[in-house]
Amino acid sequence: MKKPKRFGIWGNTEKPQFWELFPKIVSWAEKKGLEVFITTRILDKMDDPDAFQYSVIESADGFHQLDFLLTLGGDGTILSAARAVAHRKTRILGIHLGELGFLAQVTVNDMIRRLDLVADGQYTLQKRMVLKCEVYNGNEPEVFYALNDFVLDRGKSHRMLNCRLLANDRFVANYRSDGLIVATPTGSTAYSLAAGGPIVMPILSAIVVTPISPHTLTLRSIVMPDDRTLEIDFSKETQEEVALAVDGQVCEYLDSHSKVFIQKAAHEIYMIDFEDTNYFQTLRTKMGWGKRGEVD
């Protein structure tokens, strides 16, 4: 892979650990001769804005200038960065600062070694599928993009969500449940997995539909090919608003007369990876996958 010349920093500035690592990363960049770009959020919270040389990412199009974007935080930090990068193909490398993060491959202890590999061009790229959601509510459609998932649920209501699912205009099922999760392979290990869905390797391209607490034993998760357009509408019994969550970070309330269309987006997210990364080891380490009780 090509050696980078400039990179951006995107981080959870509410975490004290971010500010502990920030000067170390800047010092590393100076030694490697790399130009540093920071977000306006970081700039606004810096104690000494004149401490080092940097450029500021003024708008989303500023991501075009970067060879990669370094995120510091948890999975939520990567998800927000992915929405900001969108279709611009900016490569993302995540440094994990939380407890369970699954998307960020690099730990703090291994940070400098991994950054050295990236600086030397010794890394790989993994393309991650993105989902596009269009909501029709009698007005101009609203469009959202998700790297993990879209979740439709009963919101503030105590009643079940009643919805109908079609795939490429073909009826799939009527769902009476607490909600419905539509996930990418990346998002298959998030809420979908907690709701009983399957693990789908992120290098695949597929759509996972998982009901939340379905009120029947016959409705379970289903994995569909990525060429399907899903259409979701709601029963007349659904009198209250339906909640739509985008990657667990953006929430909208929809009228029960709305129609929702979800399909594979035209763009992908490019994640920096390494030859020695083992997806199954990550599952074992961070989720205890394949383990049976405690091992002495």
Overall description:
The chain has 296 residues and is of the alpha/beta class. It has two domains: 6-123 and 274-287, 3-Layer(aba) Sandwich (Rossmann fold); 130-266, Tumour Suppressor Smad4. Helices cover 19% and strands 38% of the residues. The protein is built from six helices and 18 strands. The strands form two sheets. Strands 1, 2, 3, 4, 5, 6, 7, 8, 10, 11, 15 and 18 form a twelve-stranded mixed β-sheet that branches. The chain has a six-stranded antiparallel β-sheet with strand order 14-13-12-9-16-17, with no helix packed on it. A hairpin with a 3-residue loop joins strand 16 (242-246) and strand 17. The protein is globular, with a radius of gyration of 21 Å. It starts with 5 loop residues before the first strand and ends in a 9-residue tail after the last helix.
What is the quaternary state of this protein?
single chain
Rounded to the nearest angstrom, the radius of gyration is 21 Å
Overall SS class: alpha/beta
Order of helices and strands: EHEHEEHEEHEEEEEEHEEEEEEH
Helicity, as a percent range: 10-25%
CATH superfamily of the largest domain: Probable inorganic polyphosphate/atp-NAD kinase, domain 2
Counting DSSP H or I runs of 4 or more residues, the number of helices is 6
- As a percent range, the share of strand residues is 35-45%
Shape: globular
Q: CATH first level of the largest domain: which class?
A: Mainly Beta
Number of strands: 18
- Sheet with the most strands, sense and barrel status: 12 strands, mixed
Integer average pLDDT: 92
**CATH fold-type name of the largest domain:** Tumour Suppressor Smad4
Q: Uncertain segments of ≥5 residues (pLDDT<50)?
A: none
**Whole-number total of structural domains:** 2
Distance N to C terminus: 42 Å
